[in-house]
Design a protein that fits this description.
Strand order of the largest sheet: 3-2-1-4-5-6-7
Strand content: 5-15%
Distance between the termini: 13 Å
Shape: globular
Structural class: alpha/beta
Largest sheet: 7 strands, parallel
Length: 407
């Protein structure tokens, strides 16, 4: 029996994709222990996964990226916020390794200080990556702006000029925060985004081609296993059977992003339309919102029962809900507000599995038109669903992690 220590930021979108893999490791007879935030620990324990808290100064993560003025600015603000935690993470993980004596360490890709401590330990360790993969490739545009892939001369020139401003900037932000930690641990400083990721023994990517841009130069450390689709156990809402029409599901971000405009636009777009709509609002304030009779507002709803019958999903282009919708064969209208969402939204568009609608262009008329256009793209969504199902999932992820333990 091997012991797997998992260190993950207290953000649902970073914890949920891992759960099926951790459950599979448990079914194979291995011990799994997780360190995360209070809500995540309670949830993991409720499904039989051993979990405990991060250090007190790390148990909360209150996203501030929504305060930025631009989408790329939001991404940089989020990265800086993750980076400010690096020193505390390194010390926390070193103490935890001493206490748990794991055979393999699994690190959330945003836990930069923990990654340095994992490398310093000499143990085999893996990055968990539930986001679009930012490792540079000759076959994909540089990460950060949501650029359309182009393989002609103009595209290659564009990518060459954009790379220092996008992945170059992201690499410098990571280096600024993690290199002091690495130096203190006696590790070589990092200079590029690629070096940061390839320090891991394994990069466990919770996505798959062709939703992720196909590449001929994947590093051997990268394993694409398809999306982690786990969600907290819940009974289907009883009101779901009352719908006489195929519903549309609209979701705001689980991690606060101040995206109430999305809920407002949905209500205005579909008032009086021959369609039923469910909106999950998360933590955004929707008091005062005019709700039409054909729109149901809920704070949280288990997504899978709705997706089993939905015609379309309108979302903020978060990787979790986007891939979950596509895994059900449901096309998406992706409205990116920030973070990595421009990249996710562009992948939806390029895959022919939905429509990208920039947040700055969000109006009720455009949203309504985008939804009816997206519904016609169900074959593209079903193609992505088949690719996800063939990627190996938690079984492939767990088998590879067990192989790491054997080394």
């Amino acid at each position: 029996m091997a012991t797997f220590l998992v260190y993950v930021e207290p953000v649902p979108g970073r914890v949920y994709p891992l759960v099926s893999t951790l459950q599979e490791l448990g079914r194979l007879g291995h011990r799994v222990t997780v360190r995360s935030g209070a809500a995540e620990v309670d949830l993991l324990r409720s499904v039989g996964i051993e979990a405990d808290l991060l250090a007190p100064e790390l148990v909360r993560f209150d996203a501030q990226d929504w305060r930025a003025r631009t989408r790329f600015g939001a991404l940089m603000r989020a990265l800086n916020q993750f980076g400010e935690r690096a020193g505390a993470q390194a010390e926390d993980l070193r103490r935890t390794i001493t206490a748990e004596q794991p055979d393999v360490v699994i690190i959330d890709e945003t836990s930069w200080g923990a990654a340095a401590a994992a490398e310093h330990s000499g143990l085999p360790w893996a990055f968990s990556v539930p986001s679009p993969i930012p490792i540079p490739s000759r076959d994909a545009p540089p990460f950060g702006l949501g650029l359309t892939p182009r393989h002609d001369r103009v595209g290659r020139l564009r990518d060459r000029l954009a790379a220092p401003l996008t992945v170059g900037t992201l690499g410098r932000i990571i280096a600024k925060h993690v290199n002091p930690v690495r130096t203190e641990l006696g590790l070589t400083p990092l200079r590029t985004l690629e070096q940061f990721y390839l320090a891991a023994s394994l990069i466990l990517a919770y996505t798959a081609e062709p939703f992720e841009y196909p590449r001929t130069d994947w590093p051997p450390e990268v394993l694409l296993v398809g999306p982690g689709l786990w969600e907290p156990p819940a009974d289907p809402p009883p009101w779901l059977n009352q719908f006489s029409r195929t519903p549309v599901l609209a979701t705001c971000s689980l991690s606060f992003q101040n995206d109430s405009r999305l809920a407002e636009a949905v209500c205005a777009a579909f008032a009086g339309e021959p369609v039923d709509v469910v909106i999950t609002t998360g933590d955004v304030d929707v008091s005062g919102l005019q709700i039409p009779p054909n729109v149901r507002l809920e704070r949280f709803v288990p997504h899978s029962p709705v997706l089993d019958r939905a015609a379309c999903v309108i979302c903020h282009a978060g990787m979790g809900i986007t891939q979950k919708a596509l895994a059900h064969g449901v096309p998406v209208v992706a409205v990116p507000f920030g973070r990595d969402q421009p990249e996710v939204a562009r992948r939806v568009e390029v895959a022919g599995a939905g429509v990208r609608l920039p947040a700055r262009a969000l109006t009720p008329d455009r949203l309504r038109s985008a939804v009816y256009q997206a519904i016609q793209l169900q074959p593209g969504a079903q193609r992505i669903a088949a690719a996800f199902a063939a990627a190996g999932g938690s079984a492939a992820a767990a088998a590879t992690l067990v192989g790491l333990a054997a080394t």
